[in-house]
Each structure stands twice: as C-alpha cells, then as structure tokens.
Amino acid sequence: MAYLSMGEAHRRITDYLSQFSTAVLNQDGPSLTPLLLVSSNSRLLVSLAHALDVFSDWLRLVDQADDQSQLLSEIVSPLFRCLQSFRAARFADAYVYFEKSANAFLQEFRNWESAWALEPLYGVAYEIRILAEKADRELASLGKNPEKLKAAGSYLMKGFGVLAGKSSKRVGALYVTCQLFKIYFKLGTVHLCRSVIRSIETARIFEFEEFPVRDKVTYMYYTGRLEVFNENFVAADEKLMYALMHCNPQRTANMRMILKYLIPVKLSIGILPKMWLLEKYNLVEYKDIVKALKMGDLRLLRHALVEHEERFLKSGVYLVLEKLELQVYQRLIKKIHIIQKQKDPAKAHQVKLETIVKALKWLELDMDIDEVECIVSILIYKNLMKGYFAHKSKVVVLRKQDPFPKLNGNPVSS
C-alpha cells in the first residue's frame, strides 16, 4: 500500500462523510448504496479503510459532521469499524459492527416516509448475509460456535416486518425474503421459510406481480425447491418453470441452478429433457438417468445414482431420482410387450414373469419371480400398468388398449 499522508487521509474520510450526508439529504438511494457495501472491494472503500488506519482520530471527524451528525454517528461509526475489521480479515468482529450499523440504518429507514432508500436497504440485507457467512467460517475454524448467520436471519426478519406493510416500501419485501431463504437453506432450517411464505402468498398484503422480476425469479426458485423436498411435484414444476421462463437467458449460471431442480421434477412427471439441454447447461450427470428411462435399463439408472451420489445428495434430489425406478421397470416391461407383439400379436398382452426375470438377468440384476411379481403389483397399483395377474400361470395379463398409461405431467400416484 502506497504511503498516505495525514492530510490525504483526513480528506478521504471527510469526502466519504460528505457523500453520505448528501445522499441522505437528497434522498439519493443509488449514491448511498455503494457507501454501505463493505465487502465490495470498491476502490472508494479500500482507500477509505487505508485512510482510517492512518488517521486514527476519525471518530472526531464523524462527531464534527454537520446536521446529519447523529445519523452519521449511529450508522457510520460502526460501519467504519466494520470496514477496518473486514480489511484485517477479522470477519466475526466485522459482522458485529455491521449488525450495529444495520440496526441503526433500519431504524432510520422505518422513519423515512418514502421508499427512496430501498436500494440501500437491499445492499444492507445482502451485506449482512455475506459478512455472516464469512464470520461463521472464521468462527468454525477457531472451534467456536458459528452463530452469525442465524443472527443475520433474525435481522432480516425485522427488516421484513418493516417492509410487509401497506406503504410503497412493501415492494422490497420479496428481496429480503429471498435473502432469508438463502440463509435458511444454508443453515438447513428450511421449515422457517413457511411463515414468510404465508405472509407473501396468504396474507395478500400485496400482489405478487408488483415485485421486480429478479426477486420473483429468486422467490419461485427457492419455493420450487421447497416443493421438491416435500415431493409436491406439480407445484414444484409450476414454480420452477416460472423461474426458468422469467430468468434472464444470459444468466446461464442461474438457468443451470433452476434446471438442476426442474429436471428431476420433469422426470418424476414423465417428461424427459433433450440431450442438447443437458449439454448446454453442463448437467451431464442426468444423461444416463434419461437414457435409463428411455431404455428401461435399471442397471444404468443405479450406476448413474452411484456415480453422482455426492452431487445428488448435496442438492437434495437423490431420493427423487431413486424413485424413478418404477418408471424404468415400466419401460422395461413395455419393451418386452413390444417385442412380443412383433413375434406373436395374439399373445402380446400376456407377459410371463419369467420373461421379466430373464430380462433383468441380462441387465445383471438377479431377482426371483416373487420379487418381480411384487414390483408388477406396485406398477399396477400406481397406475403405471393396466392389467391383472394370472397367479397360477405366473403371467401378467395386460389390458389390450393403452396398457402403459403416460404420466402426462402428473406424478406417480402415491
């Protein structure tokens, strides 16, 4: 770092204070926002941090500021200490100071009648989550309790409470909600999303279409993921499709995140993605699963689940994909039915259980007739096959018309 004189340090600090005061006085949200983004590594804040280290009596400058002094003191003083701690990689300390500054900012925001400071509030909401994540990593590495992300969630709930009213500020509620979702998913406390969702979807304090597209996409992505975890595939499909259709196609990373959950949902309701889509968004882990469904190859499905187990478990879709086995069995028996139809059309609807056992052996899967009979019973029960058993002859008699109903966008019945 280049040498900085006391005079230059003094000037940088007073320039910042002047920018902050002017932005608040003029109710200029876009100008105020970058002054709050401690983790941004902007040239302004990096040079300010250097100035604070050189000019140790900066607190006096804050106190001497003109008619905005109390506001500056309560918001900016802890913000400066946060900046110093952040630049020194003391993230737990940085979080503590930032939370103090954020609380003061929220109190002022509550008093401002108009919604001019929504953008700065978004910045504060984002920063408190980012700093909390860094603080928790630091605390965990020191063998201490990583508790800051949970504290950030509590702060954001306060912010949500301020926004979820009937004023023009309510449009900011969805952004804060999305930051809350990111925290709850990170902490594994997704059940806490429910109360916020109820406020958004049930209370009808405001219409969903009022919110910015960016926030609607993020909201639908996270609520869609919740529906995946709860195996509500029709609702998950609706929400994730909304997110995909409204997502900026230039944001390929975001498109990929949505598709990572949408594809298992589509597979569960009988809709197979094209291979080009998997390649375009680098979702090749689903390739063999799609092939297995097309071919009725249970061995290939199980191999794909083992090969990508860690990835599927991490994203929470492993159990969803594992349940595709029934569809694979259906496709296998359907293939047997088609082959029999070519050889002997008159008896095509009579499939011997022994034939299914042989097909599974060819796939290196050893199953006896009783196990196969159990699987076929489940397929009939879940409406994946239409037919009945002739138990004495160990034959499944398929209905002659449409023996293998398509899911047509509906999940396998429970």
UniProtKB/TrEMBL annotation:
Residues 217-403 form the PCI domain. Gene3D superfamilies: Winged helix-like DNA-binding domain superfamily/Winged helix DNA-binding domain. GO terms for cellular component: transcription export complex 2. GO terms for molecular function: double-stranded DNA binding; RNA binding. Pfam families: PCI. Transmembrane segments: none annotated. Coiled coil: none annotated. GO terms for biological process: ethylene-activated signaling pathway; poly(A)+ mRNA export from nucleus; post-transcriptional tethering of RNA polymerase II gene DNA at nuclear periphery; root development; transcription elongation by RNA polymerase II. PANTHER family: PCI DOMAIN-CONTAINING PROTEIN 2, UNCHARACTERIZED PROTEASOME COMPONENT REGION PCI-CONTAINING. This is Enhanced ethylene response protein 5. It comes from Dioscorea cayennensis subsp. rotundata (White Guinea yam). The gene is LOC120263637.
